Amino acid sequence: MALGYVRPARPEDAGEIAHIQLATWRVAYRRILPRHVLDNLDEAYLARRWSAAVQEPPSGAHRVLVAVEQAEQSYLVGFVASGPADAESLAPNEPAEALGPDVVAVTDLLVEPRWGRRGHGSRLLAASVDLWREDGFARAVGWAFDADQATRKFLTTAGWEPDGAARALDVDDMLVNQLRLHVAVPPDGPSAG
Question: For residue 81, what are the β-bridge partners?
Answer without folding.
Answer: 64, 108
